[in-house]
Amino acid sequence: MSRTERCLGIVLFQLGGPDTLDAIQPFLFNLFCDPDIIDFPFARIGRRPLAKLISTTRAKKVHHHYSVIGGGSPIRRFTEIQASALEARLNSLDVNARCFVAMRYWHPFITEAIEQLRVSNCDEVVLLPLYPHYSSTTTGSSLNEWNRHFCDDIPLRQVESFYRDANYLAALVEKIDKALARFPAVSQPEIVFSAHSLPQSIIDRGDPYQQQIEETVRLLMHRGRWTNSHRLCYQSKVGASKWLQPSLHRTLRDLASEKVRDVCIVPVSFVSDHVETLGEIDHEAREEAHRLGIRQFEMTEGLNDSPKFIDALAQLVLRIVEEPIRTVLPNQESVAAPIMAAD
């Protein structure tokens, strides 16, 4: 069957986010009910009460972040834009494609995407996690949820982690160059790569996320050929356990104490703007930087509907459809660590 004769379904996995302020707590409840996020002895009994406690406390903490970015997360809108652009790009390449958005913790849920897929009469399916770096808490969790609900007899393929992909890296370099151009001299600011943090215990149990993030930073600095000083930090810690360090807040204080006056933040683990970029970095961290005496603070915009990024996704799909069909499973055994208290 030719490309134009067969219908190819592409499922874009993403975290999801509350679309209103009232949705913050139930969104967080869904997140902390995930066994790939919180696991501990007798978790089947205690997970839901603990998720209720953490989500209620955390919702109050992040309410302001969502308020300052319009009262909800734009991640669904950006992901649907990406899905539409990817579908159009593949159709322009003579691929009869249908794209479906599958959010892990808020609408449209993975189960909703499966229902849409079932009535689309697709001949085969490509699973495309919009996480460049693999973690059991992101890609692994989405695939586990997919496997719990999808049992149709349709050939499946999965796009693996794509943090090394040349087209993806080129799209990021383009965004970084654009942000650096806002400084009087492009070599002047310190480049600070910020990635979503994870509990250290998850990394210690074999999750490759940190190693892949660090490699991405090396690849970007090599590809961009910038002479700027740079460093890596982590953000969005939840709970009292040890998480990847240094934090974004600690890094800003370090920069200020080192008399660094110009900073360019690169959200390196995200493919679209959402609360962690627009709220945590572009609002909260920006205000903190200015209080600390940092003169110019810039953040690279998300990849969002970048033509380079959309083409990168299209090429990933095209490459994977040429490979043999195989069973779709998480990349590694699910590893999770308890998050016992909200900060």
List the helices and strands and how they pair.
Blueprint: E1 8-14, H1 24-32, H2 43-68, H3 75-92, E2 97-103, H4 110-118, E3 124-129, H5 139-149, E4 156-158, H6 166-180, E5 190-196, H7 200-204, H8 209-224, E6 230-235, H9 248-257, E7 262-267, H10 275-291, E8 296-299, H11 307-321
Parallel strand pairs: 1-2, 1-3, 3-4, 5-6, 5-7, 7-8
Helix pairs in contact: 1-2, 2-10, 3-11, 6-8, 6-11
Question: In words, what does this structure look like?
Answer:
The protein is 44% helix and 13% strand. It is of the alpha/beta class and 343 residues long. It has 2 domains: 8-163 and 306-321, 3-Layer(aba) Sandwich (Rossmann fold); 166-299, 3-Layer(aba) Sandwich (Rossmann fold). The strands form 2 sheets. A 4-stranded parallel sheet has the order 2-1-3-4, with helices on both faces. It is globular and about 60 Å long. The N and C termini lie far apart (55 Å). 45% of the residues are buried. Mean pLDDT is 92; it is low at 331-343.
Task: Kindly report the CATH topology of the largest domain.
Answer: Rossmann fold
Biggest β-sheet, characterized?
4 strands, parallel
Structural class: alpha/beta
CATH class of the largest domain: Alpha Beta
Domains, number = 2
Count of strand segments: 8
Distance between the termini: 55 Å
CATH architecture of the largest domain: 3-Layer(aba) Sandwich
Rg = 20 Å
Q: Spell the H/E element sequence.
A: EHHHEHEHEHEHHEHEHEH
Total of DSSP H or I helical runs spanning 4+ residues:
11
Segments where pLDDT lies below 50 for 5+ residues? 331-343
Strand order of the largest sheet: 2-1-3-4
Q: How would you sum up the global shape? A: globular
- The proportion of residues in beta strands is 5-15%
* Mean pLDDT rating: 92
Estimate percent helicity. 40-55%
